[in-house]
């Protein structure tokens, strides 16, 4: 039973436009949320995180939104750049665990020049 | 500064064999976690070690074991390999155990079981 779902396996966006990646979770015990980016032949790289006490966190071109009532997380990338092309994973941590990350299945983002 | 390193990069084994994967954390990091990533899926948590003690275990059979050494490096052992163990094995390190401690991932070890 998947606790973290990324329903879009792939997304293509034109350079300069906004990329919106979505993630849904089922467990209300999750209280810390993260986005990772993964290039081929590399490990995942941390992008941005948000705790359950917030509904938005910004870092440069990246903004994460958290809707707790809908159990929905999204990552906005503005403006999108070709170097952003990668697999994006959302990950969650439950309030009962130390640092165990539960990942979604990932979304392949392709930014077209 | 060196990031998280893992060895070997690639490995081919046959069913029934055992394998040992190694991980060196970032200098100063005391926590190491292991994840399995099967093709088309996100990484799945296997173990977490902090200060040489197991602090978390995912839903994996007892064929999977791990340990952390005094220098904070870690080994993941898998016995009686099955075809389904073919995956990318990722190691991640962090300074501490709390949620604010970012996990840094290594490039992974690609294990193929024939």
Characterize the structure shown:
The complex is a heterodimer of chains A (113) and B (114). Chain A is an all-beta fold and 113 residues long. Chain A is built from no helices and eleven strands. In chain A, strand 9 and strand 10 form a beta hairpin. In chain A, 35% of the residues are buried. Chain A is globular, with a radius of gyration of 13 Å. With 114 residues, chain B is mainly beta. Chain B is 0% helix and 50% strand. Chain B has strands at residues 5-7, 10-13, 19-24, 31-37, 44-50, 53-57, 64-68, 74-78, 87-94, 104-105, 109-113. In chain B, the strands form two sheets. In chain B, strands 2, 4, 5, 6, 9, 10 and 11 form a seven-stranded mixed sheet that branches. In chain B, strands 1-3-8-7 form a four-stranded antiparallel sheet, with no helix packed on it. In chain B, strand 4 and strand 5 (44-50) form a beta hairpin. The interface between A and B is medium-sized, with 26 and 29 residues.
Instruction: Estimate what percentage of residues of chain B fall within beta strands.
Output: over 45%
Low-pLDDT segments, ≥5 res of chain A: none
Dominant shape of chain A: globular
Main sheet of chain B?
Answer: 7 strands, mixed
Overall average residue pLDDT of chain B: 93
- End-to-end span of chain B in angstroms? 37 Å
Please tally the helical runs of chain A, counting DSSP H or I stretches of 4 or more residues: 0
Strand runs of chain A, count = 11
Q: How are helices and strands ordered from N to C of chain B?
A: EEEEEEEEEEE
Strand content of chain A: over 45%
Query: What's the rounded overall pLDDT mean of chain A?
Result: 93
Name the helicity range of chain B.
under 10%
Distance between the ends of chain A: 38 Å
Low-pLDDT residue intervals, each spanning 5 or more residues of chain B: none
């Amino acid at each position: 039973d998947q606790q973290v779902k990324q329903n879009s396996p792939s997304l293509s966006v034109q350079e300069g436009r906004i990329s919106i990646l979505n993630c849904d979770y089922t467990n209300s015990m999750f209280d810390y949320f993260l986005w990772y980016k993964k290039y081929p032949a590399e490990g995942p790289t941390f992008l941005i995180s948000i705790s359950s006490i917030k509904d938005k966190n910004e870092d440069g071109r990246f903004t994460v939104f958290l809707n707790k009532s809908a159990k929905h997380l999204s990552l906005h990338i503005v403006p999108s750049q070709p170097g952003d092309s990668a697999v994006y994973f959302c990950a969650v941590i439950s309030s009962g665990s130390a640092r165990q990350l539960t990942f979604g299945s990932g979304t392949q983002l392709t930014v077209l020049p | 500064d060196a990031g998280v390193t893992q060895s070997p990069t690639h490995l081919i084994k046959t069913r029934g064999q055992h394998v040992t994967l190694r991980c060196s954390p970032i200098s100063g990091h005391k926590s190491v976690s292991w994840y399995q990533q099967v093709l088309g899926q996100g990484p799945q948590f296997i173990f977490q070690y902090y200060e040489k003690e197991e602090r978390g275990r995912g839903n994996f059979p007892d064929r999977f074991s791990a340990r952390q050494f005094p220098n904070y490096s870690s080994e993941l052992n898998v016995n009686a390999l099955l075809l389904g163990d073919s995956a990318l094995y990722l190691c991640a390190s962090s300074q501490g155990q709390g949620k604010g401690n970012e996990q840094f991932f290594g490039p992974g070890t690609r294990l193929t079981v024939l």
